[in-house]
Amino acid sequence: MLHIDNYSNHILHNITLKIADKNLVLLGSNGVGKSTLARVMCGLIPSNCVSISGTKLQDIAPSKKRELINYIPTKLDIYDNYISLKEFLSFSTDDSLQIDKLTELLGISHLEQNSCTTLSSGEAQLTLIASALLHNARYTILDEPTSNLDPNYIKTIFEILSNSNYLQNKIVITHNLDFAYKLGYDVVYLKDGRVDFTGTSQEFFDQSNLDRYYNKHIQKINSNIVVSL
Amino acid sequence: MKKLILICSLLLVFVSPFIGEVDIDLHKLTDASSIDYRVLVNLRIPHIILAFLAGGILSLSGVVFQVIFRNPISTPYTLGVASGATLFSAIAIILGFGAYSSLFAFVGAMSTVLILFAVAMYIKEYSPNSLLLIGIALSFFYSATLMVMFYISTLQESYEILRFTMGSLDTLGYKHISILFVSIVLFAIVLYRYKQEFRLLLTSYEFAHLQGIKVKQVSYILLFGVSIVIGVCVSITGPIGFVGLVIPHIIKAIYKQSTDKLLVEMFFYGGVFLVLCDLIARNMTQTQIPIGIVTSFIGAPFFIYLLVRK
């Protein structure tokens, strides 16, 4: 159980969430504090409001915390120009074969020796997802994992996230509502820095609920969530 | 290519003690009482060892600062460590303790580090940029105070202070060198102990944190270690600029590997670079040119050439 107890800062207000060991999507408009909340959950923003299985996050030894929670940002940020993709992934596991298998699966095996700083934004995002899969913490927060990907890769990532063999508990932040709907995870919706909705996928993607949150710009047509422009 | 550079470098280091104002007669070296022997053993060799060690540690500390601050132009001097040393050495000269100027310089370097850390403790969230800015502010403060020192000093004192700021590798015997050597070995042990953490700092703070590294703690330990060894170095040689800035970049441009794999090369070629600069400083004109001038004269054009070629 991942528990956030009444957390507030300049953007988030009185956030209380109990996340059981299951998958979740975190939705909300731009700038509402989704990434900030994610960073609080994994301890990148220090607080004493987060606990995992009853132990406060700041009381958990860093090496133990590594096994419990991981956060995958939208962009790959690397200082050194000469760290190759494979070297980067080797930070997450010592198993070289597993790295090769995953880069094969994600279609980035030909880039293994390339420097991380020369990757395109889509390739960098796939690299980050590979690192999340290798790291395989108990909770993995993926911040907009498909924002830089073409439709074929969105499908690949969807299949990976839908497959229970990969990653333990996933918390996915996304603006792609169709993606969120098809994943079928429980939904937390943030509005004005507060938790405005928690419920099942079915409850959230009910047309009347969508109308309430998206001003009737979102339509559910034949089980697809479509933006009406 | 790399092998050729290595062979030339080794040759340079070993031949360098034999080249200088006084010609060394190899036949006379068997006689320990000859002038040739004394010049070589008591003057030239310690001079070259000091150049090599100082160049090595300046280069290594440069890269450690660059990685910790994620800033390709930061060096220990950016944080005011060298300015602190210079100022305190100036104070020593003016107060009539010129003989102890090395000790004062070390105290100056260390007190700068302590001021930095004391301020950093007040900043809750780890913010290397604030530390960098505090360092720059301190540098300016020290420079201004140094100007005051110049203003109130006599002509002779001014000359002594100015001479210190230009850097010098003159040393008598091996006492200073052994202190520098021991501090370098201790720092190398610390760096080796934290090598995995250092590798992770090459990615990003966030990634390192999520991989279970205490980023703030590790950064402070490495910075503190580097500052002590730089404090020792500056107190012996005075501030020698440019080595810490350019050598790490030049080595990376030549080897095209990640920094963690090149630390030994950076130390070695930093040392070789300063030995080369020293050779030029000692032999180009009839009087010895201050080493700090030569490092910048050679380093700057070569660095620009490498950047343009890229």
Secondary-structure blueprint:
The complex is a heterodimer of chains A (229) and B (310).
Chain A: E1 2-7, E2 15-19, E3 24-28, H1 34-41, E4 50-52, E5 55-56, H2 62-68, E6 69-72, H3 85-90, H4 96-105, H5 121-135, E7 139-143, H6 151-162, E8 169-173, H7 177-183, E9 186-191, E10 194-199, H8 201-204, H9 207-214, E11 218-221, E12 224-227
Parallel strand pairs in A: 3-8, 3-9, 6-7, 7-8
Antiparallel strand pairs in A: 1-2, 1-4, 4-5, 9-10, 11-12
Chain B: H1 2-15, H2 35-69, H3 81-94, H4 101-122, H5 128-152, H6 155-165, H7 175-193, H8 195-201, H9 205-210, H10 215-237, H11 243-255, H12 263-283, H13 291-309
Characterise this structure.
The complex is a heterodimer of chains A (229) and B (310). With 229 residues, chain A is α/β, with parallel strands linked by helices. Chain A has 9 helices and 12 strands. The longest helix of chain A has 15 residues, at 121-135. The termini of chain A are far apart. With 310 residues, chain B is mostly helical. Helices cover 74% and strands 0% of the residues of chain B. Chain B has 13 helices and no strands. The longest helix of chain B has 35 residues, at 35-69. Classes of the chains: A alpha/beta (229), B mainly alpha (310). The A-B interface holds A 42-44, 46, 62-66, 69-71, 73, 77-84, 87-88, 91-92, 135 and B 67, 70, 124-125, 199-204, 206-207, 209-214, 252, 256-259.
Briefly, what is this?
Chain A has 229 residues and is α/β, with parallel strands linked by helices. Chain A contains nine helices and twelve strands. In chain A, strand 4 (50-52) and strand 5 (55-56) form a beta hairpin.
